[in-house]
Design a protein that fits this description.
3 domains; 4-stranded antiparallel beta sheet; globular; 7 helices; alpha+beta; Uridine Diphospho-n-acetylenolpyruvylglucosamine Reductase, domain 3; single chain
Length: 280
């Protein structure tokens, strides 16, 4: 099977092993199939080649919810469960993932392996700060429960370890209570990079903060930017909305990505936000 990451390069012809449960995973790791180097793979949303090898162990079928602790806002699920799956369950309860990256289509296992961050990294830390416990299958097939108090060295090595300590089977993650799924967003244009840094410092207390930077602008406009800041609305809906996006059945031709077209796009995007404003 041909595999690639989010960036679509490189592409690798790989043998994909798909265990349907932890017992099947143990057999794979303990058997002759594991004697050749292999790497765990979640949803394949990594930017580079971190989940590519000649032999890949997919967590696609480790996708069940195991337990929900409503009293302590904890959820335990398989490593193949995506953040999107979790949002569908937790948002109606008034919960939210404390850390959410640029895409909701990454798996729990991948989020832990990469210790992903969100737009609130400056105040809330990264994903593994909210992982309470995980189940890990080592290269020999041994299954270990790991936390900050049990097999702690292995726990910390697995968080951000990019799959090198073994394959995550499941994990327990702490969620947070939010008043609304809606987020009040404010867009602040910056004429250059210096002003962008000043705005970031000024609004450092906001929960969500991310800047888009025009990397093609020069001269006095070098680093012109738009800073987006946000906070959860004090009240509003707590239901999951699955918005349908546009989908093209083909890749954009590479010749369309050139200095001229990118400058036009960046200019249009900056001017769109030039007046700033607030949205939900």
């Amino acid at each position: 099977m041909e595999l690639h990451g989010w960036g679509r390069y490189p592409r690798v012809n790989a043998e994909v092993l798909e265990p349907i449960n932890s017992e099947a995973l143990q057999k794979i790791l303990a058997g002759k199939e594991s004697k050749q180097f292999c790497i765990p793979r979640g949803a394949g949303r990594s930017y580079g080649d971190s989940a590519l090898a000649e032999k890949v162990v997919s967590s696609r079928f480790l996708d069940s919810f195991i337990a929900v602790d409503e009293a302590n806002t904890l959820i335990r699920c398989g490593a193949g469960v995506t953040l999107d799956n979790i949002l569908k369950v937790c948002i109606p309860k008034g919960w939210f993932l404390p850390v959410l990256p640029g895409t909701k289509f990454v798996t729990i296992g991948g989020a832990i392996a990469a210790d992903i961050h969100g737009k609130n990294h400056h105040c809330d830390g990264s994903f593994c700060d909210y992982v309470q416990e995980l189940t890990l299958a080592s290269a020999s097939g041994e299954v270990l429960r790991c936390s900050r108090s049990n097999n702690s060295n292995l726990f910390h090595a697995t968080c951000g370890g990019m799959g090198l300590t073994g394959i995550i089977i499941d994990a327990t993650v702490r969620l947070e209570n939010v008043p609304s799924v809606l987020i009040n967003r404010k867009s602040l244009p910056a004429s250059d990079l210096k002003q962008c840094f000043e705005l970031i410092e000024e609004y450092n207390d906001k929960k969500y903060s991310v800047a888009w930077v025009d990397c093609l602008s020069t001269g006095k406009s070098l680093g012109r930017s738009v800073l987006h800041i946000g906070e959860h609305a004090e009240e509003g809906e707590s239901s999951y909305r699955n918005r349908l996006g546009l989908s093209m059945p083909f890749s954009t031709p590479s010749f369309l990505l050139n200095n001229f077209t990118m400058r036009m796009f960046n200019s249009a995007l900056y001017n769109l936000h030039k007046k700033g404003g607030e949205t939900y």
